Amino acid sequence: MKLRGSGLKRCNSTSGSTLVTVVVTGAILGLVTAGTMALGSFQLRMAHGRNDWIAAYHHAENALHWAAQMIADAWPAPSSGVYATADGTLSLPYMQEALQG
Fold first, then answer.
1. Which one, of 63, 64, 60, lies nearest residue 52 by Cα?
2. Hey, what's the torsion of the CAs at 10, 16, 17, 23, to 10 degrees?
3. Count of CA atoms in the C-beta half-sphere (13 A) of 86
4. Band of the pLDDT at 29, cuts 50, 70, 90?
5. Which positions ≥6 away from 71 have C-beta within 8 Å?
6. Which sequence spans correspond to the domains of the chain?
7. Which of 1, 22, 33, 69 has the fewest CB atoms within 10 Å, i.e. is most exposed?
8. Which of residues 89 and 66 earns the better pLDDT score?
9. pTM for this one?
């Protein structure tokens, strides 16, 4: 009786090159995905930073308008040359909410 082979299949060079192609493609896809996630995270941090600057500008602009209005409303002008309320506070309720929130 003659035996036909041992049951093992031979690997040819195309299956090895297919594995290399899949590994390289997976690595490139992983790098692209990581880069996209990093860019998205960076853009999100920049958007939050811009939002903080916009809020700070808004508060400063309103404080300037408040001060200009208090100067315009003061009559007669104080002899000390200092224009402020007695306790030196701003009566802008949204600023208190922003500072506490």
1. 60
2. 150
3. 0
4. very high
5. 83
6. 16-73
7. 1
8. 66
9. 0.40
